[in-house]
C-alpha cells in the first residue's frame, strides 16, 4: 500500500501568487478547471469575505498553507520509508510460525502411532473385561429378578396368613404393597414377571373381595336390601341395629380400601362382574366396589325380567324396564343417603352413594337400549316409541332423581350414526304425513279460538297452529341432546319442513287466488303471518341463539348452506338469525298475497266509485251552512263498499295484517280519489265544499275506528280539499305567489324571497308540490283569469 496509489500525485501551480493543490487520479485525469476555480472562489469568500480590510491577512493565510503543505510532505515521506521494515518483520514472524507448526505436526504423528499400538495391545484385555462385566450384570439382574419373585411370594404368603387369622386390614395393606411393586415394574421389560404379579394380585383381590362381599351381602339382607317396593314406616328396626351398622361401616370401608389399593383391577372390569357394574368409558371412573355388590341383586332381577323369553321382555314396551329402573332409583335413594353416604364421607370418599347407584343401574339400561335400538331400525312405529320413552326417561332422571348433568344418561346412545339418521328420517316422514293430514282436515282453515276474541289476535288457522306445534315438539325432543352438531341436524330438518309447508301454502293460495276476498285466502295469509311471527320469536330465543353460535363455530353446511362471508359474520355477531332466509320467503309471499288482496278490494271500490268520479262537480250550487249538507248520492255505493270491506278484513285478518291492509287500502284510495276524481274534474265552490264534506265527514271517519287521525293517511285528498275550498281572495294571492315563484325560478332571480312552500305550509299543505297546487287552482271555476 502506498499513498500515491489512491491519492495521486500532488503538484503545485501558481496562479496570481496563490498556491493550491491539484490531485490527479490513478488514470492521470485532472479535475476540471472550472470546478477548481469555483473551489478557490468559495475558499476566498469564506476566509476573506467582502471586507476589503481583510486583504491584509492574505500573506498570513499563504504562510499557513505553505506550512501545512510541508507537514503533509514530511508525513508522506516518513510513511513511505517505514513500510518496508514492518513488512520484513511480519514475513520473518510468519516463517518462524510455519516451522513451529511443522514440528508440532511431527510430534502429533509420533504420539498417534504410539497410542494406536497401545490400543491394539490392550484390545484382548478389554474384550475379556467386557465379557466378565456382562456376566456380572446378568447375574445381578437374575438376583434382582429372584429377589422380586421372593418378595412377591412373601407378600402372597403374608396375605394368606392374614386371611387365615382374619386380619383383613393387614391383608389389604399387603395387597397395596403388591400393587406398588406392580407400579414400579411398569417401565421394565419383564413381561412374564408383570403377568405373574398381576395374576397374583387378581387372585388375592378376588379372594378378599369374595369374603368381604359375602359378609356385606349378609348385612345388606338384614337391612332388607334390595328395596324393591317403596319403603314403608311400618318396618321396625332390628334388635341389633347398632351392631349391624358397625359391621356395615367396617365392610364398606374395607371394600373401599381394597378398591383403592389397586384401582386398575376394577378399571379392567373382571369377567366375574361383566355387565353388572361396568360403565361406558365416557362415564368416567368405575363404580365404587360396595355399590357394585349392592347392584348385583338388582342386576339379576333386571336380566331375569327383561332378557330371554320372558313376557316382560317386549320390544314394544321399553317403558316397562325404564320405569322399573326409575322406581328402583327412587326407592333406594333414602337408604343410600341415610345408610351408605355417611360411611363414604367418614372414609374420605368424595362420591355420592345415590349417584353411584344410578350410574350402575344406568349401565344396565344403556346395554338394553343399545340392543333394542339396533333391532328396531326397520320398524318406524316401535323405533319412535323407544325414542319417546328414552327422552321421557332422561327427563325424569335429571329432574326427579337429580342426576348430574355432567354425567351422560341415555341420550348419547341416540347419537350413534345409524340411530340418529333413522331418527331424522322418521321425524321427516311423520312430519310430512301430519302436514298432509292437517291441510286436508275439515277445519284446517278455521281458528279454534275464533269465538274468544282475547286469544285470537293472530287468527291463525288450525293447520298453521298445528304445524308450529309440531315443530315445537320436535324442538323439545332434540333440545336435550348433548351434541350441538346433532341438534343442528334437527334444526336443518325444521327449516326444510317450514319451507315445505310454505310451498304447500303457496299451492293452496294459487287455487284460491281467483277469490282473494274469500275466507280461505285470508286464512292462508294469516297462516303465513303466524309462522313468520313465531320464527321471529325463535330467532331471539336463547336456545336458537346458542345453536346459531354453534353453527358458525362448527361451520355446519346443513344450516349455513351457501351463505357468504358477510352473512356468516352477521350470524356470528348475532345481528341475523338462522331463520332469515325462510323469513324473507314468507315475507315475500305475504307481500304478494296482501298486494293481490288490496288490488281486488280496490277493483271493487273503483267500480262502485265510477258514478262519483263522473258527478257534475262544476254545477253544484254553493251551500253556506254545512249542517244542511248530506253525503253525495253517487258516493253512497263507494262508502258502503269501503265500510263493508274494512269490516270484513277486520274480522278475517289478524291484527297486524289488518293494520297493513287498512293502511295500504287508504294509500291506494287516496291516490285513486286524487287522480281519478279530483284531477279529472273542475269544481265550483259548491262542488269543492261537497267534496270536502264527503271526505272529511264520511270517508275519513270510516278509517277513524282504527286510528286517531285518519286524515293523515289521505294527504293528497285532504290537501287538495284545502286548496279547492280556499276563499277566492286567498286563492288568487296564492296563485300569483306560485306563478311569481315559478318565473323567478326560471330566471334564477329573487333568491332572497321566502320559498312558496312556506306559504303552503301555513295553509296546512305539506305533501303537494307548488306545481300540483297550481294545477288544483286551475280546476276551480270561481277563480277569474282561468
Automatic annotation (TrEMBL):
Coiled coil: 55-107
Transmembrane segments: none
UniProt cross-references to Gene3D superfamilies, sorted A to Z: Dsl1p vesicle tethering complex, Tip20p subunit, domain D
GO BP: endoplasmic reticulum to Golgi vesicle-mediated transport; regulation of ER to Golgi vesicle-mediated transport; retrograde vesicle-mediated transport, Golgi to endoplasmic reticulum
Lineage: superkingdom: Eukaryota
The entry's keywords: Coiled coil
GO cellular component terms given for this protein: Dsl1/NZR complex
Family: Belongs to the RINT1 family.
Descriptive protein name: RAD50-interacting protein 1
Lineage start: Eukaryota, Metazoa, Chordata, Craniata, Vertebrata
Gene designation: RINT1
Amino acid at each position: 500500500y502506498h499513498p500515491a496509489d489512491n491519492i495521486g500525485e500532488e503538484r503545485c501551480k501558481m496562479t496570481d501568487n496563490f498556491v493550491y493543490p491539484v490531485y490527479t487520479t490513478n488514470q492521470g485525469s485532472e479535475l476540471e478547471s472550472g470546478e477548481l476555480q469555483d473551489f478557490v472562489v468559495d475558499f476566498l469568500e469564506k476566509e476573506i469575505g467582502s471586507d476589503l480590510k481583510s486583504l491584509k491577512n492574505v500573506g498570513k493565510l499563504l504562510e499557513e498553507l505553505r506550512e501545512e503543505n510541508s507537514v503533509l510532505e514530511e508525513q508522506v515521506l516518513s510513511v513511505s520509508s517505514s513500510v518496508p521494515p514492518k513488512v520484513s518483520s511480519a514475513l520473518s514472524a510468519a516463517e518462524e510460525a510455519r516451522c513451529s507448526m511443522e514440528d508440532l505436526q511431527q510430534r502429533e504423528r509420533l504420539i498417534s502411532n504410539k497410542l494406536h499400538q497401545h490400543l491394539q495391545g490392550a484390545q484382548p484385555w478389554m474384550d475379556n473385561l467386557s465379557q466378565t462385566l456382562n456376566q456380572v450384570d446378568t447375574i445381578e439382574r437374575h438376583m434382582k429378578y429372584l429377589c422380586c419373585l421372593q418378595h412377591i411370594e412373601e407378600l402372597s404368603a403374608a396375605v394368606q396368613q392374614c386371611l387365615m387369622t382374619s386380619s383383613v386390614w393387614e391383608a389389604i395393606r399387603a395387597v397395596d404393597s403388591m400393587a406398588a411393586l406392580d407400579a414400579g415394574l411398569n417401565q421394565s421389560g419383564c413381561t412374564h414377571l408383570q403377568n405373574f404379579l398381576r395374576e397374583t394380585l387378581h387372585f388375592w383381590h378376588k379372594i378378599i373381595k369374595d369374603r368381604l362381599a359375602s359378609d356385606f351381602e349378609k348385612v345388606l339382607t338384614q337391612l332388607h336390601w334390595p328395596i324393591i317396593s317403596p319403603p314403608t314406616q311400618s318396618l321396625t328396626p332390628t334388635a341389633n341395629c347398632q351392631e349391624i351398622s358397625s359391621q356395615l361401616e367396617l365392610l364398606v370401608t374395607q371394600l373401599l380400601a381394597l378398591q383403592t389399593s389397586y384401582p386398575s383391577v376394577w378399571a379392567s372390569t373382571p369377567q366375574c362382574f361383566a355387565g353388572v357394574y361396568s360403565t361406558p368409558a365416557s362415564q368416567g371412573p368405575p363404580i365404587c366396589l360396595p355399590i357394585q355388590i349392592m347392584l348385583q341383586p338388582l342386576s339379576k332381577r333386571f336380566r331375569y325380567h327383561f332378557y330371554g323369553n320372558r313376557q316382560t321382555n317386549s320390544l314394544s314396551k321399553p317403558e316397562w324396564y325404564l320405569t322399573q329402573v326409575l322406581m328402583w332409583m327412587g326407592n333406594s335413594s333414602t337408604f343410600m343417603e341415610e345408610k351408605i353416604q355417611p360411611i363414604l364421607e367418614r372414609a374420605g370418599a368424595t362420591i355420592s352413594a345415590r349417584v353411584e347407584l344410578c350410574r350402575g343401574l344406568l349401565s344396565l339400561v344403556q346395554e338394553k337400549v343399545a340392543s333394542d335400538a339396533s333391532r328396531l331400525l326397520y320398524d318406524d312405529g316401535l323405533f319412535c316409541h323407544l325414542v319417546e320413552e328414552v327422552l321421557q326417561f332422561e327427563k325424569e332422571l335429571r329432574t326427579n332423581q337429580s342426576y348430574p348433568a355432567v354425567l351422560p344418561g341415555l341420550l348419547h346412545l341416540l347419537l350413534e350414526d345409524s340411530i340418529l339418521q333413522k331418527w331424522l328420517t322418521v321425524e321427516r316422514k311423520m312430519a310430512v304425513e301430519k302436514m298432509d293430514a292437517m291441510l286436508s282436515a275439515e277445519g284446517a282453515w278455521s281458528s279454534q279460538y275464533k269465538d274468544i276474541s282475547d286469544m285470537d289476535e293472530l287468527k291463525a288457522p288450525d293447520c298453521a297452529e298445528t304445524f308450529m306445534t309440531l315443530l315445537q315438539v320436535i324442538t323439545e325432543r332434540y333440545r336435550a341432546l348433548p351434541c350441538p352438531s346433532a341438534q343442528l341436524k334437527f334444526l336443518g330438518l325444521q327449516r326444510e319442513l317450514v319451507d315445505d309447508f310454505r310451498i304447500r301454502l303457496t299451492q293452496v293460495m294459487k287455487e284460491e287466488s281467483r277469490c282473494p276476498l274469500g275466507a280461505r285466502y285470508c286464512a292462508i295469509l294469516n297462516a303465513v303471518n303466524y309462522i313468520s311471527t313465531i320464527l321471529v320469536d325463535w330467532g331471539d330465543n336463547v336456545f336458537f341463539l346458542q345453536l346459531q353460535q354453534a353453527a358458525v363455530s362448527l361451520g355446519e353446511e346443513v344450516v349455513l348452506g351457501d351463505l357468504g362471508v358477510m352473512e356468516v359474520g352477521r350470524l356470528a355477531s348475532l345481528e341475523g338469525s338462522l331463520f332469515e332466509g325462510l323469513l324473507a320467503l314468507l315475507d315475500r309471499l305475504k307481500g304478494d298475497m296482501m298486494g293481490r288482496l288490496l288490488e281486488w278490494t280496490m277493483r271493487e271500490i273503483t267500480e262502485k266509485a265510477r258514478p262519483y268520479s263522473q258527478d257534475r262537480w262544476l254545477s253544484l250550487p254553493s251551500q253556506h251552512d254545512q249542517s244542511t249538507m248530506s253525503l253525495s248520492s253517487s258516493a253512497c255505493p263507494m262508502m258502503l263498499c269501503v265500510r263493508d270491506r274494512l269490516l270484513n278484513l277486520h274480522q278475517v285478518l289478524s291484527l297486524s295484517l289488518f293494520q297493513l291492509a287498512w293502511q295500504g287500502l287508504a294509500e291506494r284510495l287516496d291516490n285513486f280519489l286524487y287522480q281519478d276524481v279530483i284531477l279529472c274534474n273542475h269544481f265550483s265552490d259548491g262542488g269543492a265544499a261537497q267534496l270536502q264534506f264527503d271526505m272529511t265527514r264520511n270517508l275519513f271517519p270510516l278509517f277513524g275506528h282504527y286510528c286517531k287521525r285518519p286524515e293523515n293517511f289521505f294527504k293528497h285528498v285532504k290537501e287538495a280539499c284545502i286548496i279547492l275550498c280556499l276563499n277566492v281572495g286567498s286563492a288568487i294571492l296564492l296563485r300569483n305567489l306560485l306563478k311569481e315563484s315559478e318565473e323567478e325560478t326560471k330566471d334564477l332571480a329573487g333568491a332572497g324571497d321566502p320559498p312558496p312552500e312556506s306559504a303552503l305550509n301555513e295553509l296546512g299543505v305539506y305533501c303537494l308540490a307548488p306545481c300540483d297546487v297550481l294545477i288544483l287552482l286551475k280546476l276551480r271555476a270561481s277563480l277569474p283569469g282561468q
